């Protein structure tokens, strides 16, 4: 029997096909994991609203989900782990953007809420991609101490603008804040140590399961650290070669039932 007692998986390019559908074979193996008492935890840069419907379709409405790459971990609707951004630094960031980069679309994520100050073309495009609708509100007001915690910001503009902004921010004094590109024109802003790797450590600790008994599955470079850290890291067949090199094993692609295959072969078999 396998010694795997916990599975943590990426979503896009992993459990979703290239047509953004959940692999039907994966849905079929979920009851077997539940019977074996092996939790299946989703980890993604997505918001709770982008993750919970997927968890429900998998039959996992009460399993933890690591949203915003681990900045917020929910069990059902209960927050069990969170790493909000430092509001003082975010206020400084907003002031800097308003004077030096006024064209940048600023999107704030707090729990399940997506907040922006105007429905510009970038936020409209993002709404079309995610199916979510933003709350229109003054940004500095949103970042006030009396408001709820902020788990992520997403800055969007033309690639040249965003990449220039990224380099500027990395040279500035934001000791509690991390900046990374998720697309050539998407700049993500989180608390300093937020990552899927850190989420793996925290979720494993939450379940009191050693890393040697955790399987992680992913397809992209932001998944590589958690693939390398887990006892069994599985890269998707559609992953870049650099990601495959960080994993223990490579499964089939997301269009060829790769996650279901990995679970059947290395956990349930």
Describe the protein's topology.
Elements: E1 6-9, H1 24-35, E2 40-43, H2 48-57, E3 64-67, E4 72-75, E5 78-82, H3 87-100, E6 105-110, E7 113-116, H4 121-130, E8 135-136, H5 139-142, E9 152-156, H6 159-170, E10 177-183, E11 186-191, H7 196-207, E12 214-218, H8 224-229, E13 232-235, H9 241-244, E14 249-250, H10 258-268
Parallel strand pairs: 1-2, 1-12, 2-3, 7-8, 12-13, 13-14
Antiparallel strand pairs: 3-4, 4-5, 6-7, 6-9, 9-11, 10-11
Q: How many individual helices?
A: 10
Indicate the radius of gyration in whole angstroms.
19 Å
Overall helicity: 25-40%
How much strand content do the residues show?
15-25%
> Which fold name fills CATH's third level, the topology of the largest domain?
Rossmann fold
Largest sheet: 8 strands, mixed
Spans of at least 5 consecutive residues with low confidence: none
Strand order across the biggest sheet? 5-4-3-2-1-12-13-14
Task: Tell me the domain tally.
Answer: 2
Termini separation? 7 Å
> What is the annotated CATH architecture of the largest domain?
3-Layer(aba) Sandwich
Strand runs, count: 14
Global morphology: globular
- H and E string: EHEHEEEHEEHEHEHEEHEHEHEH
CATH H-level superfamily of the largest domain:
HAD superfamily/HAD-like
Average pLDDT, all residues: 95
The first-level CATH class name of the largest domain: Alpha Beta
Secondary structural class: alpha/beta
GO molecular function: hydrolase activity
InterPro entries: Cof (IPR000150), HAD-like_sf (IPR036412), HAD-SF_hydro_IIB (IPR006379), HAD_sf (IPR023214)
Protein name: Cof-type HAD-IIB family hydrolase
Keywords: Hydrolase
């Amino acid at each position: 029997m396998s010694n795997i007692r916990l599975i943590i998986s990426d979503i896009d390019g992993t459990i979703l096909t290239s047509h953004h559908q959940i692999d039907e074979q994966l849905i079929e193996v979920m009851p077997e994991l539940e019977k074996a008492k092996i939790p299946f935890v989703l980890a993604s840069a997505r918001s709770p609203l982008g993750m919970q419907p997927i968890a429900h379709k998998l039959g996992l409405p009460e399993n933890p989900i690591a949203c915003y790459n681990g900045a917020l971990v929910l069990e059902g609707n209960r927050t069990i782990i969170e790493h909000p951004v430092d509001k003082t630094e975010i206020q400084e960031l907003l002031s800097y953007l308003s004077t030096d980069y006024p064209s940048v679309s600023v999107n704030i994520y707090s729990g399940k809420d997506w907040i922006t100050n105007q429905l510009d073309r970038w936020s409209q495009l993002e709404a079309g991609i995610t199916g979510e609708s933003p709350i229109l509100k003054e940004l500095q007001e949103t970042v006030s101490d009396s408001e709820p915690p902020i788990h992520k910001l997403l800055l969007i503009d033309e690639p040249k603008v965003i990449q220039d902004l990224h380099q500027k921010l990395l040279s500035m004094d934001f000791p509690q804040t991390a900046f990374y590109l998720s697309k050539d024109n998407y700049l993500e802003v989180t608390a300093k140590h937020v990552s899927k790797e850190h989420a793996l450590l925290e979720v494993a600790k939450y379940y009191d399961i050693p890393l040697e008994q955790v399987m992680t599955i992913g397809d992209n470079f932001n998944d590589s650290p958690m693939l390398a850290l887990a006892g069994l890291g599985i890269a998707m067949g559609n992953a870049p070669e650099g990601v495959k090199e960080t994993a223990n094993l490579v499964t089939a692609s997301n269009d060829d039932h790769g996650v279901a295959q990995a679970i059947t072969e290395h956990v349930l078999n």
